[in-house]
Amino acid sequence: MGFVRRFLARPTTVVGLGVFLLIVAIALGAPLIFARGPFSIVGMPLLPPGAPGLLAGSDVLGRDMAVGLAYGARISLLVGITSTFGAVGIGVLFGAIAGYYGGVIDDLLMRVTEFFQIIPSFVLLMVLVAFLQPSLTSTVIGIALISWPQVARVVRGEFLSLRSREFVQAARVLGMRDMAIIFTQILPNALPPIVVVSSMMVGTAILTESALSFLGLGDPNLLSWGSMIGGSRSAMWVAWWTTVLPGLAVMITVLALNFIGDGLNDALNRRRRR
Amino acid sequence: MKLRYIAGRLVKTVMVVIAVVLLSFFLIRLAPGDAATVMAGQSGYADEAFMKSLRAEYGLDQPVPVQLWKYVRAVAQGDLGNSFVRRQPVLDVILERLPNTLLLDAFALLVAAAGGIWLGSLAARRPDSAGDASVTVLSMLFYAMPQFWLGMMAMLVFSVWLAWLPPFGIETMGADYTGLARIADIAVHMILPGMTLALYFLASYARLTRAAMIEVADQDFVKTARAKGLTERQVARRHILRNALIPLVTYAGLQASILVGGSVLVENVFSWPGVGTLAYEAVTGRDNPLLLGIFIVTAILVSLFNLITDIAYSIVDPRVELG
Amino acid sequence: MALVSIRDLTVSLPPGADRALAVEDVALEIGRKEIVCIVGESGSGKSVTAHAVLGLLPRGVRAERGSILFDGTDLLKETQDAMRRRRGCDIAMIFQDPMAALNPVMAIGRQISEQIRTHRTISEHEALEQAKGLLEEMGLRDVAGLLKAYPHQLSGGQRQRVMIAMALSLSPRLLIADEPTTALDVTTQAQILKLIKRLQEAREMSVLLITHDFGVVADMADRVAVMRHGRVLESGAANEVLSNPAHSYTRALIAAVPRGEGRLAPPSDMRPLVQVTGLTKRFRRGGLFSRSQATVAVDGISLTLSRGETLGVVGESGSGKSTLARCVIRLLDPEAGTITLDGADIAHMRESALRPLRRRIQMVFQDPFSSLNPRQTVGDILIAGPRAFGEDTKKARSQAADMLRLVGLNPQTIDRLPHEFSGGQRQRIGLARALMLKPEVLIADEPVSALDVTVQAQVLKLLDDVRRQMNLAMLFITHDMRVAAQICHRVMVMRHGKVVEEGPTHDIFNTPSSDYTKALLAAIPGHGLL
Question: Structurally, how many domains does chain C consist of?
């Protein structure tokens, strides 16, 4: 298929996809491989990577870093994917309606998206999570709530420009109903930027989650990469791996997602040109 | 002519501020428990008498529109509640720390803008060269790493291993410098957190500048400029860059809100005594009035900054007319 | 000795382009005080040749061999810096779209003074004085105000005059004009071309004029070269080539220029099928938070359209002709007036009542590149109409295959995607789509404006044949009077939303009563000579 060929054209995309799939595999397999969970103490604290039985060393409390990294992957991916799902769902709905029907609804949506662009969303997120009590649910809801305006803006822009394209006007002239036009004419052509934005958004959501848990606003019962970094602050000076490794994990995951996003951009945009 | 535009933007800013206050009001009601519980937080000061006075203050026994009015009036007068952790009015606490944050953020924004535009224009001049590729690669790396982690890495390298720069705070403790020496001391302390903050946005600016310049370079009027016999440098400066600046000005406005978020994280890592570390204290201390107050103040400041960049935009792009 | 002598010019394109060479072995001479036209369709290489003279070829496009002698010196062998000093000074160039060709954020005066001060050491003040004189020479008024204005505040014609002023500010010996009038209204076009000719005579300079329109060649050129697929097919004195074209392609190009004085054969069925009275459409700008301004795009228009006839609506941009078309087919909702389709007034009908009537009135659009959904196959595009009315897919597909044959396309291509077809072929698909519902009325909104002239002729003939075969009533929107003359029985001239004049094509063309119509007719390129 042409799509697959274009998608895998860049070596970075292939590497990104491979790395991402590996991370997903680790996340899914963590409870099977490391049955005891990330909180159990396995030995002396602050042992360096390479110490017997400790691939990535141990942290401040003597917990296995490798196990923590594996379980952290579960949290990052879970939060990243579900919050993006939510944001895209809400964003596409509002953006499509505003872009297609225009008028007052569109004006209203533009004001809302501008508002969210202007205010400091991370601080708002902190307030939201703090007030709703920090948990996995409040994290996902919070991130979805501050991210949907971005999706809505992109979708609205696409619908607006597509709505005035001649082939959409032709569909109206042919007597097609509005819903049919939106689903068969506009949406397939609006999909590429939505897909690309979504893949980037998963990466951003993972970064945001790590920031929240670094500050102690993550789920107190779960271990995530951000909380690992936050917990290592006192030990950083003598045990660099407690800080460096979880951060590298975040960076590699987000990079992989960005590479995938670039590949998707290439693959999907070709068709739109003449 | 331009006045209509500026007036329109002013109205918009005011509406954003009103929306922020309304949003805060509803945020308080969002949390489980009544408003008084939320505002008392889990600070441990929740004895009966205190809760009673809080309830009266917020008018919790009265209908919602009355409560809203009380709240809006209070905020308009600068009363954002009291911080429990610090036993002071929230606004005072925030204003005390605000200059430090503004200093840090201004520095970061300037470095990011200047550095980013410079790098981006270099990359755009020679697309697909090794220099261009390295700018793109570096941008991607800085985009993908958590800012707070970058700060910690920087601290590790420059303060721990190389011991070139101080890791914490705004001034050397107990040194009591004055005048020029004090400024120099603060400047040295500002390098690590400032550069950490700046690097993410520098990457952003570089990518945006590069993309904008490449797009502008394709346009017909650039061809006209060359056909007039201008040197490449004149074309790049007067025609390409000048037009590429337009989207960059808008971007600066949007960046401010992201900058505040980044500031919270970076200040924390370096114990920079600004509003960001204050927010962290509010979180750990369950000091909800303080946290909410920080949101309101930063939101207002950022929307004012956006107003300024909008006005700058209208100066930079003469096509902006009647709003 | 000729001022410019191009020999064996060969320019290569970067890998991945649709051919290896943009131009091949091009030879051309431009004498002193001579206007030479290069004429060709899109992809002929005429623009590349013009850009090569000034060394303005884009990245990746390179002159491989040949020579361009300018007053004896080979420009291809000059250093970058030497070429730069010639640009704007010895040789100047103006481009097609003056809005895109002027820096949007720099004042007009500054753009002109910049040109002058690049090559002469004088003060800004002096340069602006010179700029003032130049703009007056171009026939512009309120010159002081113009100097301070920005491009978006000027009209298309004013902008092109500014470009010309800028180009001629240092009295170059050669002016290269790359399709300088294509983006302008027809009356403005005529003015600009006249201006160029006047300046050429007054300043005794040579002009290299790139165009796709043989009418322009007839009006302007002393000598002409015909290009196709990167090669010069024929060249010589303009009146010779026009009267005795040697190459068959040249003959085809000349023949394809639409012409005529209007058809005389009246349609058979005179009963009006469509009647429009007092149609008015206003556009309001502004949203929730800004004051609205209204422009009246269509102002009380009335017309009738009968089966078997083609009514042309002719006007320049902003005349309201496209808005009128869109109102008649209810893509836009008119504020006032009636649109009667065989008795039923559809002007303010609700969409649910309107839908069944939509079968009877269909539309062909202007832009072949955006009028077909890029993600649907031709088959799906064609059956969309019948399917929307509940018809069986299989039946619709076989109908679609027949329709493709009717419009001159291979029915085997039914499962291909739009991007695999050329512009002319896509317009045929658009026509087929419109005809699938067997309409009685066909509205054609500038259906050939985006096509090359030889393709234009074919599609126009197809439209006329189809109208005759299916006994359609056709409303034909165009800005080109020549096209209207070729295909329309009656013509309605519009301006600023109102009807200026209306009648049988032959009468309008031979005995126009309104001054505006006369101006439109006079502006037709080559109208005397072809």
Answer: 4
